[in-house]
Amino acid sequence: MVWDGGQIGGGWAMTACGLDFGTSNTTLGVQDAAGGFRLLALDGPRTTLPTAVFFDFEADAVTIGQAAVDSYVSGVEGRLMRSIKSMLGTDLIDADTALRKGRISFRAVIGTFLDTVKRRAEATLGAELGDVVVGRPVHFVDGDPAGDAAAEETLGAIARAAGFRNVSFQFEPIAAALDYEQRVTGEELALIADIGGGTSDFSVVRIGPERRGKPDRSADILANDGIRVGGTDFDRDFSLATAMPELGHGSALKRAGLLAPKSVYFDLATWSKINFLYTTKALAELERLMRDSAVPEKIERLIGIVEHRQGHALAMAVERAKIALSDHAETQLALDWGEGSLALPVDVPGLNRATGLLAARIGNRIRDCLADAGVTPDRIDAVFLTGGSTLLPQVRAAILAEAPDARVVEGNIFGSVGLGLTVEAQRRYGG
Q1: β-strand partners of 112
Q2: Dist CA 131 CA 28 (whole Å)
Q3: Measured distance CA(431)–CA(37) in Å, rounded
Q4: What residues does each domain of the chain span?
Q5: What DSSP designation does 295 have?
Q6: 168-210 residue pLDDT tens
Q7: Residue ranges in the chain whose pLDDT is less than 70
Q8: How many CB atoms lie within 10 A of CB 374?
Q9: Distance in angstroms (rounded) separating the CA atoms of residues 115 and 130
């Protein structure tokens, strides 16, 4: 991946845009008439669109964004899918899942989402979108270059099928650097930290007002690195430590020395795998587990959640509790589905214990990125933070510990990558 100013594909007739297709949220930006950059409204008046798809069985319709989440929460019968970006780079991308009538592949689910995003953006803009720079993590897949390349190729093919003419990619932390560079007044060496829903990505780059107009910026990128750890991983580990034990995770079976299988709890705590539990076979296995369990009342509660398809509601409750602990020392995690209800007290120390290894992995990868760049921490002038998971105190502390003397700059938490991709789209395709 390079940071250059060359035109790719030669398309000039239609509007170029930057697309940040995120694990949790999606944005799309264009250049405005004054030469600036803006994000388009994709969800009513909002520029940030939750990356969610809901297949409404009652109306035989498909909705995306906040409306998809609201339909699910209100009890409309259907299937909610979130974290669909995490399917890229895995064997699941070409697998399918059951709907009320027939089945649909996860590739097609992503296609449906991107097609709707494009049409909404065009309706807001009043013009057709042709060329696009799409954001991508530094690594879709850790330690697997072939899988990483396949994930980019798959996403490019889906974007072209949605109607984009020329599709190219830029690393998400480089896009964030481009956004940050629009406002700096002097030369800086910046560490860019983009902590999203599915991945954590880092770049060490030279930025400055005199560098913005250079046709080739590749020499300004000193290092890129990333790890497949993001907000949904924090949700999963927090859920496994708090909610899942109340559903039987780690509990004993009647047969001495055996515990309830971990896989069902891992799936229920993982956004992209929750739907796999909503099958007749999975429910039958849970019924057998309840008969074998030494604490059948907990397995009965688990069955109630799965049987009523409230796995995503549980995941949302865990996510809300995690977010609340960004501002409060303690909160309540409500389990109000299935057989019985509980309100579990959770606190910051508990969150830190559950997710400490994830935060440490982020810090270690930043250290590797600085080493790749050949710079010591004291040479970093600014740490630019973007992505929703930078709001987690433990994550923020892990980042800042690697460049303790640097100035901390808060980016547009959900918009910096999309705006930077838009800057890059104009560099590559013109406007």
Answers
A1: none
A2: 12
A3: 11
A4: 233-349
A5: -
A6: 999 999 999 999 999 999 999 999 999 999 999 999 999 999 9
A7: 1-13, 337-340, 431
A8: 10
A9: 13
Q: 3-state DSSP call for residue 75?
A: coil
Residue whose entry in the numeric block shows the structure tokens 């699910």: 72
Residue matched to tokens 């270690």: 364
**Residue 200 and residue 399: Cα distance in Å, rounded?**
11
Tens-place pLDDT, residues 66-95: 999 999 988 899 999 999 999 998 888 888
C-alpha to C-alpha distance for 418 and 423, rounded to whole angstroms: 9
Q: How far is CA 369 from CA 36, 85, 225, in A?
A: 31, 24, 6
The 10 Å Cβ neighbour count of residue 162 is 21
**Long-range contacts, 263-267 (Cβ 8 Å, 24+):** 264/289, 264/302, 265/240, 266/236, 266/240
- Phi and psi at 85, nearest 5°, equal -65, -30
Q: Strands 52-56 and 61-64, how do they pair?
A: antiparallel
Largest CA distance in the chain: 72
Q: What SS3 state is found at 412?
A: coil
Where is 345: in which H helix or E strand? strand 342-347
Handedness of CA 127, 131, 137, 142 (dihedral sign): positive
Q: What is the DSSP string of 76-107?
A: -SEEEEE-GGGGTTSGGGG-EEE-SSSEEEHH
Neighbours of 94 (CB within 10 A): 11
Distance CA 373, CA 53 (A): 39
> Residue 391 forms beta bridges with which residues?
none
Helix boundaries (H) for 51-199? 66-73, 106-125, 145-161, 172-181
Task: Report d(CA 137, CA 198) in Å as an integer.
Answer: 9
Q: How many CB atoms lie within 10 A of CB 130?
A: 18
In one-letter notation, the amino acid at residue 44 is: G
Strand partners for 98: 103
357: tokens are 């290894």
pTM for this model (two decimals)? 0.89
- The predicted pLDDT at position 228 comes to 94
Structure tokens at 285: 């296995």
pLDDT of residue 219: 93
**From residue 317, how far is each of 53, 199, 422 by CA, in Å?**
19, 21, 34
Any residues with CB less than 8 A from the CB of 71 and at least 6 apart, and which?
A: 54, 56, 63, 78, 80
For residues 65 and 55, the answer to whether their CB atoms sit within 8 Å is no
Q: Which DSSP category does 40 fall into?
A: P
